[in-house]
Amino acid sequence: MKRNSRSSLNYQQIATYDDIPAALWFRVSDAPAESIYPQHAHAWGEFIYSFNGVLEVNIDQINYLTPPPYGLWLPPNLKHSGLNRTQVTHCTLYVHENLCQDLPQHAGILMTNAFVPAILEHLRCSTLPDHEPEHLRILQVLLDQLKYAQILGSYLPSSKHPALIEILDFFHQHPDDSTSLKDLARQLNMTERTLARYSQKELGMSLNEWRQRLKVMNAMSMLNTNKTVESIALDLGYANSSAFISMFKRWMNLTPDQFRKLYKS
């Protein structure tokens, strides 16, 4: 099992925001590949949404990932850190703690309706100053929409087991890899049954399910670009687009093309 020798400890560190200028504040950021946000906490809530790429946020050793159209809600005063394996363009809606009463009291992925990405894209392209009444009204509409969003757990659980950490990191670095679980287990000097038991205990799911979830998340990010479905299928290790389309529809209840039309920025 070949692994990238570059450790996340060597990633470029990005400054965090320690104050916000208004009760509701919207900001768009371009984060380079191999960069991190060090652990920090704010006295306000944050809704984080990635336009392109996948931002990973770690909370108490649990990784929350945010590919479009998923967003991540962080309640006030929650310690967290961020990791960008690839270049990521994301936005953050900062919400003063006095406005967080009707929002979830714990972190989680928010599955919003298609209206929310449309609002975020409008804000991303807007040239209105932050203090303009029209801009503030749009932020309030966005906040109202988030109150009704469905909150999910961590879509892609992490593990503390050394062997699983190695495998999951390998999957992240090589989403097109098709090594069987039997061969992976052998490379780690354990049986396939033992590896399956560790996976179920640590992740709450099989490694096959975890790997498919990762492929879906990578696909969602790539579908927000101009890549063809065929090209994405090949990038994710599928011999043809039909197998990829079938897998994606099974998880998302949409074909890749339907997803692209619904959520593409």
UniProtKB/TrEMBL annotation:
UniProt entry keywords in alphabetical sequence: Activator, DNA-binding, Repressor, Transcription, Transcription regulation
Superkingdom of the source species: Bacteria
Coiled-coil residues: none
Pfam families, per the entry: AraC_binding, HTH_18
Gene Ontology MF terms in the entry: DNA-binding transcription factor activity; sequence-specific DNA binding
Residue ranges of domain HTH araC/xylS-type in the record: 165-262
Entry-linked PANTHER family: ARAC-FAMILY REGULATORY PROTEIN (PTHR11019:SF190), HTH-TYPE TRANSCRIPTIONAL REGULATOR NIMR (PTHR11019)
The protein, known as: HTH-type transcriptional repressor of iron proteins A
Species in which this protein is naturally found: Acinetobacter stercoris
Gene expressing this chain: ripA_2
